From TrEMBL:
Highest taxon, organism lineage: Bacteria
Family membership noted in the UniProt record: Belongs to the sulfatase family.
GO molecular function: arylsulfatase activity; metal ion binding
Keyword Hydrolase attached: yes
Keywords: Calcium, Hydrolase, Metal-binding
Protein name: Cerebroside-sulfatase
CDD domains: GALNS_like
Record-linked PANTHER family: ARYLSULFATASE FAMILY MEMBER, ENDO-4-O-SULFATASE
Coiled-coil segments on the chain, per record: none
Domain Sulfatase N-terminal: 32-373
Record-linked InterPro entries: Alkaline_phosphatase_core_sf, Sulfatase, Sulfatase_CS, Sulfatase_N
A Pfam family that the UniProt record links to this protein: Sulfatase
Length: 475
């Protein structure tokens, strides 16, 4: 059974009118530019507009004031690779097959999956991936094989190491005493120990990551303190080139920060009251402001949709290098709200009303069908798990019927949110046990998931288990 049919919303007359208005956007009008900024391991409460008193983010706060700030926005998985695959495909990990985290030399996102870049490029979009990829580092998995015209970035998390099969540019830069010969020796060691990460880390190779352009390493080890600036510099340059070519653009911009190890440039190092973690977030904030100013200066901002969000909740247990989920429980790797609920802001001047706050239950998987609507591109002939949010974005204050959201762990649906209710049949920890009794929360009354209501509402458990059963059978 197709879950998109099972959970199709009942459109009100107002919803139909809004839907018609979106569809009526002139077919000859230039499609919108799209910029997605997806940070790494940033907690829900790590922006000023989300309650942080120690991390100063004036430009993102302003972006929120100029657009929609979401308070109930969820990623499709609480871990890097699976989360990113879902954003780019509009599908839960049970469908796209990315279950957790890829390490160098692992598999990657199947080339048979359709990414947003592959979807938009036939529509005439220039497409760029800039920053962390983390969906496979072999040539067939890299961004330029998955619909992106250009790529600059680290192909996985910044705490990893050189991959076993990556090619080296003839003019690659080697830093900190490294030479090509030494780097090739390290790569050979990784290749011979690809299944033994402990041995690779014991060799001292951890945190020494390559910077790739296209499908070649151009810098090793990457100068991580300068990456945030360089990523945004490249994005601005790409925007200018696409505009000169009179093409709409899709920029997928994914800073390495604030994933550990933390790095900030000299301009921001030691400036935040929140320490190095705050330095990294405040640096991202500054460059988001640069990007928005650049769009305005080029006359592009009124036709550019910009999304800012994090790929999952904070990686707890890292001391001062840990972000904050605020009042929400737990963090990265868990299916509690601290792992899945993230800050999210969408800005599109003249189209999305400014100064709005949405408490609608929405997710990164909803971006694919939403952008399809805004770009007037027919949906692909494959199962999508997301739902079109265009009507809600154009009128955030109008009634909105949220659809059930499924909590994923290791590629399997292990929980569900429907309305205010959240069911975790075996709890929300990273390592689930069938012996763990069910947990039921009313997120409206108890967003911190402190009071398990399972014993008081057996009928609600049956109802939510039925939703999980229907969804599981649809896969």
């Amino acid at each position: 059974m197709n879950p998109r049919l099972v959970f199709m919303p009942v459109l009100t007359l107002l919803g139909l009118l809004i839907f018609a208005a979106v569809s009526a956007i002139g077919a000859t009008e230039r499609p919108p530019n799209i910029v997605i900024i997806f940070t790494d391991d940033q907690g829900y409460a790590d922006l000023g507009c989300y309650g942080s008193e120690s991390i100063r983010t004036p430009r993102l706060d302003r972006m929120a004031a100029e657009g929609v700030r979401f308070t109930n926005f969820h990623v499709a998985a609480s871990v890097c690779s699976a989360s990113r695959a879902s954003l780019l495909t509009g599908r839960y990990s049970s469908r796209h097959g990315v279950r957790g985290v890829f390490v160098p030399g692992n598999n990657g996102l199947s080339p048979g999956e359709l990414t947003l870049a592959e979807f938009l490029r036939p529509r005439g979009y220039a497409t760029a991936c800039i920053g962390k990829w983390h969906l496979g580092d072999a040539p067939q998995f890299l961004p330029t094989a998955q619909g992106f015209d250009t790529y600059l970035g680290i192909p996985y998390s910044n705490d990893m190491y050189v991959g076993p099969s990556q090619a080296w540019a003839d003019n690659a830069t080697f830093r900190d005493g490294w030479t090509r010969e030494r780097a090739l020796e390290a790569q050979s060691f990784v290749k011979n120990n690809v299944a033994n990460r402990a041995a690779i880390e014991a060799k001292g190779l951890r945190d020494l990551v390559p910077l790739m352009e296209g499908q070649q390493i151009v810098e090793f080890p990457a100068d991580q303190a300068s990456l945030t600036r360089r990523y945004f510099d490249r994005a601005l340059d790409f925007i200018d080139r696409a505009s000169a070519d009179k093409k709409p653009f899709f920029v997928y911009l994914t800073p390495a920060m604030p994933h550990v190890p933390l790095f900030a440039s000299s301009e921001f190092l030691g400036q935040s009251p929140r320490g190095l973690y705050g330095d990294t977030v405040e640096e991202i904030d500054y460059h988001v402001g640069r990007l928005l100013d650049h769009l305005a200066a080029r006359g592009l901002d009124e036709n550019t949709l910009v999304l800012f969000a994090s790929d999952n909740g904070p990686w707890l247990g890292k001391g001062d290098a840990t972000g904050s989920a605020g009042t929400f429980r737990d963090g990265k790797f868990s299916t509690y709200e601290g792992g899945l609920r993230v800050p999210a802001i969408i800005r599109w001047p003249t189209r999305i009303p400014a100064g709005q706050t949405s408490d609608a239950l929405v997710s990164t998987i909803d971006l694919f069908p939403t952008l399809a609507r805004f770009t007037r591109t027919p949906l692909p002939d494959r199962a999508l798990d997301g739902h079109d949010l265009s009507a809600h974005l154009l009128t955030p204050s109008a009634p909105f019927a949220s659809q059930p959201y499924f909590c994923m762990n290791d590629g399997q649906p292990v929980g569900v949110i429907s309305g205010p209710w959240k069911l975790l049949p075996h709890g929300g920890k990273r390592n689930l046990s069938p012996e763990t009794p069910p947990e039921l929360y009313n997120l409206t009354d108890d967003p911190g998931e402190k009071t398990n209501l399972a014993s008081a509402h057996p009928e609600k458990i049956r109802e939510l288990k039925a939703l999980l059963h229907i969804f599981s059978n649809s896969l």
